[in-house]
TrEMBL record:
Pfam families registered for this protein in UniProt: DUF3027 (PF11228)
Positions of region (Disordered): 232-260
Species per Swiss-Prot/TrEMBL record: Nocardioides phosphati
Source domain of life: Bacteria
This protein's name: DUF3027 domain-containing protein
Xref: InterPro entries: DUF3027 (IPR021391)
Upper lineage: Bacteria, Bacillati, Actinomycetota, Actinomycetes, Propionibacteriales
Length: 260
């Protein structure tokens, strides 16, 4: 007989007592060396109960054998529904699967790699519906009919959601106001002479850095970003290099040197 070490509210005493039957059926499918003690009996519903056994199989620490038994109303005959191996709370299991398109990060693409965009990508909308700028009604009116009739221009352009996602990503990234380099900058990008303005709905929030000596050269930066390469940055007096001393002229003659 096997003694169970824990029980979770089993109301069916017939099924609870069927632990030996559960073990017998389990041993038909698993090696005896892989099966440990009964560790729990959990009621799954009316006249349905699961017996759990410790798993001793190498590499399956924290897993447990699950044997579900049941009986008909008014009958004492117990049948086995299923036998499976399940992970426990402290079992080592593989991480949840994440599709490749959700795992890819900037910099992962190599020359020749392709990353197709799905037809229903919410970041994109047909250009003929919105124009190049979804917030510009004039662009919408001008582009819609031309693109529809002649097929000119881009097939798709950014949706409002796509613009918002990009803006938030840029604002929260290395070119945003919370970046460590921006926290110690002498001034912000909006007042820098190296800032290139952009057009469209993000023109009041972002620009492109054009300082070849700056870390963000050629990158989108928020107006609240900043770095030490600001066009108006000035060194404080204590940060300035120490000026060289005046030249010293050696007037010592050979005769004077010999007399020393």
């Amino acid at each position: 007989m096997t003694t169970q070490t824990s029980t979770t509210a089993p109301s069916d005493t017939v099924l609870t007592a069927a632990v030996d039957l559960a073990r017998e059926v389990l041993l038909e499918q698993a090696d005896r060396a892989d099966v440990g003690d009964a560790i729990a009996a959990v009621a799954e519903g009316d006249h349905v109960l699961t017996h759990y056994f410790e798993c001793l199989r190498a590499g399956y620490r924290g897993w447990r054998w699950s044997v579900t038994v049941a009986r008909a109303e008014g009958s004492d005959k117990v049948t086995v529904d299923e036998v499976v191996l399940l992970p426990g709370d402290d079992a080592i299991i593989a991480p949840e699967w994440v599709p490749y398109k959700d795992r890819i990060r900037p910099g992962d693409l190599s020359p020749g790699d392709l990353l197709p965009v799905e037809d229903d990508d919410p970041r994109l909308v047909p250009t003929y519906s919105f124009g190049d700028d979804p917030l510009d009604p004039d662009a919408t009116a001008q582009v819609r009919q031309v693109a529809k009739d002649l097929g000119l221009g881009r097939v798709r352009t950014l949706s409002r959601e796509g613009i918002d996602l990009a803006a938030q990503r840029w604002y929260d990234g290395d070119g945003g106001p919370e970046a460590p380099i921006a926290q110690s900058a002498p001034a912000k990008c909006y007042s820098c002479g190296f800032l290139l303005r952009i057009a469209g709905s993000l023109a009041e929030t972002f620009g492109v850095c054009a300082n070849g000596n700056a870390n963000d050269d050629g990158r989108v930066v928020a107006f609240g970003h900043g770095c030490g390469a600001h066009s108006e940055a000035q060194l404080s007096k204590k940060q300035q290099p120490i000026p060289p001393t005046d030249h010293a002229h050696d007037t010592l003659t050979t005769d004077e040197l010999d007399s020393l």
